[in-house]
Amino acid sequence: MTVTRSDGSGARRAGAAAVEFDLTAHWRERARGREGWDNAPALIRDLSARFTATVAEAIERAGGVPGRTETEFVAATWYGTSHVAEVMHEQLREAGPKWLDPEQFLHYSPHAMVSATSLDLGLGGASATLVGPDAEFQAVAHAVRRIRSGRAATVVVAEYEALTPFAAAPCPDGPGTAAGAHPKGHATALVLTAGGGRGPSLTVHRSGDGADASAGRAGTTVRTAGPGLLRLLADAAEPLVVVSRAAGLRDVLVLG
Question: Rounded to whole angstroms, how far apart are CA atoms 94 and 87?
Fold first, then answer.
């Protein structure tokens, strides 16, 4: 996967990795209510470790990244570390003295995953975490623009999700929950680097008819962005057009 720069030079997707993991144990602990509170930090540490390992694997498959201290990092998630937010909410609703485990605050912010991974892997460039239904699309678009503008030579793009019961309940169109089944946790990471290389291009367009025009150029149909976009881009071998699902946005990703 290459990223076409505005000056005509290319870039390449040097590595990718993905993981899926079972959340059954976590959901069972959540069903225990107060009795399961003490296990919330341990489960979040597991999510953080899996996320870091996925990014590390993508970097390894890329053969490393030149200049780790300048490598940028952007992540996407629907709900972030809502595991701990859910437990904190329940604890504060309890009668009597209020208490919160200070360790939980280390994992409360959605950006905590990126911070922990950056520290563990020595990634010192600018970083960001985008949250919401269109987060994966916007994270990829951000990374492509950083490379096209020459502001970054390497950008790691990643996503993670591990839904809690509270987050899953109001979102039937969210990140993949079969009726009566626990959702799977997952993480994906791509390494995009500036420079030449073989493979399809990954570009961002914005125009009134960007989707139709881009689809015609790529020779394929338009798809709307949604959960699993990074995995789709990592695995795709054929031309692909993806349109943002956010109302009023005309950004289009073209893989081809």
Answer: 11
What pTM value is reported for the model?
A: 0.86
d(CA 80, CA 110): 4
One-letter amino acid at 61 equals R
Backbone angles phi, psi at 37, to 5 degrees: -60, -40
Query: What pLDDT, on the 0 to 100 scale, is given for residue 8?
Result: 37
Q: Average pLDDT, whole number, for the chain?
A: 81
Token code pair at residue 170: 């109001």
d(CA 22, CA 41) in angstroms, rounded, equals 17
The SS3 of residue 15 is: strand
Amino acid at 162: A
Contacts of 24 (CB under 8 A, 6+ apart): 182
Measured CA to CA, the distance from residue 218 to residue 113 in angstroms comes to 35
Q: Supply the DSSP string of 169-206, one letter for each residue.
A: TT-TTSS---TTSPPEEEEEEEEEEES--SS-BEEEEE
Q: Whole-angstrom Cα distance, residue 184 to residue 165?
A: 12
Q: Which residues does 229 contact at the CB level (< 8 Å), separation at least 6?
A: 136, 137, 140, 159, 242
| Cα–Cα separations (whole angstroms), residue 184 to 17, 19, 41, 86, 235 | 16, 10, 19, 18, 19
What Rg do the C-alpha atoms of the chain give, in angstroms? 19
Cα angle 168-187-64, degrees, rounded to a multiple of 5: 165
Does residue 86 surpass a pLDDT of 90? Answer: no
